[in-house]
Amino acid sequence: MGGKADIGFIGLGVMGQNLVLNMDDHGFKVVVYNRTVAKVEEFLAGEAAGTAIVGATSLAELVAGLGRPRRVMLMVKAGKPVFDLIEQLAPLLEPGDIVIDGGNSSYLDSMRAAAQLEAAGLLYVGCGVSGGEEGARRGPSMMPGGSPAAWPHVKAIFQAIAAKVADNTPCCDWVGENGAGHFVKMVHNGIEYGDMQLICEAYDLLRSVLGMDAAEMSCVFDHWNNGELSSYLIEITRDILATQDEDGAPLVDRILDTAGQKGTGKMTVAAAMESGVPLTLIGEAVFGRFLSALKEERMVAAKVLRAPQRSSFNGDCKRLVQDIGRALYAAKIISYTQGYMLMRAMSAANGWQLNYGGIAQMWRGGCIIRAAFLDHIKAAYDDEPQLANLLLAPYFKEQVETAQCAWRRVVVKAVEAGVPLPAMSAGLAFFDGYRRERLPSNLLQAQRDYFGAHTYERVDRPRGEFFHTNWTGRGGKVTSGSYNG
Fold first, then answer.
1. pLDDT in tens, 279-290
2. Active site residue: 29, 39, 177, 185, which one?
3. Active site residue 185
């Protein structure tokens, strides 16, 4: 092969090829392998022609071509294919060598892989990679976690190929042990679900309540992209709305209203359920995709279930557009707030000691949720590293309080018009619940004690003391144990 390579790469899908080309651009020698060996030959003769990239026809050849400690990055389908490769690779490696999983693995699988490889004397990195094909080629956001001893050996490569923000800071830093990297990537994707759903709800309001056409809406999103809502997703929404089909009609109007998903949103909500974190907005974004998939049922229901009598909007159009923008921003704050609540809970449970400001920095460029907004999150955690909740940071407190009247007007208008705002209204409900000192859950707990003797605490006694009432006079003093608050 002529000289040892800096890193081995397995999996030459589009993302894999682009990451390899990115590494080559930055002066790293890469040896590549693919299960279908013909794909290696095609890559070397095509996109990689004229580069320093070399091919291997077997795992053994790939490993033999690497300098110590050997670094082998996998970009293959998550789940069983990853563990099958680890099983084949491990006997070829030596203590201190590093296996890197750059795919969309579950953080639970990442934790399992870390334990398995570390038990064999090897090191593991589970690295979330965001930014799609273009990000992989020109600079993705990278979220590595796993064996801390591995980080010094992969840091130079990862930070070289990652996206950079204005001051040239790379959108890549160490996240934490075992599954932390893939967990943070999963939360990124959950927030992405929330952002996308919120944008779609704003689009629906502009279209269904204000009667705007695609070109007019594109102008609104362009305006928003020049302000506090500036982000990649707002930018591409502007471009999508401006794109015409072959006959000049808006292409977006020709796209079937059913949304797909790859499962990371569901994984995020499942993790929140396990952790007891109220991830309500992101949950509604996931359920919104489920509802969109019921296209045939919805077509039948539309003919049977009556909507409110709609009349053309005759209010202040400009003010409603401003209100929608403010509501979108406030709800976006809630989406990130909930994502950070989940990270905080899981960090405590797993001892990850996540750097929350650093995570915002990693998301500032290269990834799908990149936005100017993230600078404020980083600043909030720089000012208060132990911040319990983003809503308690001065900037976000002020923004939500300033926007809440507009936010409420938008939700009311949507309810009156029969336009669903599952994520935007869930965000408002969360805000109203979180800001209230007293919720009606006292009645709920009384109900639980009435039918199941689940006990309750009292406001006039210290926390941790549990009581039971014999509500019917027939229940006796037997209880089912204290509740889990």
1. 999 999 999 999
2. 185
3. yes
- Can you give the pLDDT at residue 269? 96
The owner of tokens 């690497």 is 66
pTM of the predicted protein model? 0.92
Cβ-contact 19, 75 below 8 angstroms? yes
Asked if 455 contacts 475 with a C-beta cutoff of 8 angstroms, the reply is no
Q: Which of 192, 284, 332, 378 is catalytic?
A: 192
Where the chain has pLDDT below 50, the residues are: 1
201 is catalytic: no
Instruction: Kindly report, residue by residue over 130-146, the tens digit of the pLDDT.
Output: 998 999 999 999 999 99
Give me the residue label for tokens 């336009």: 419
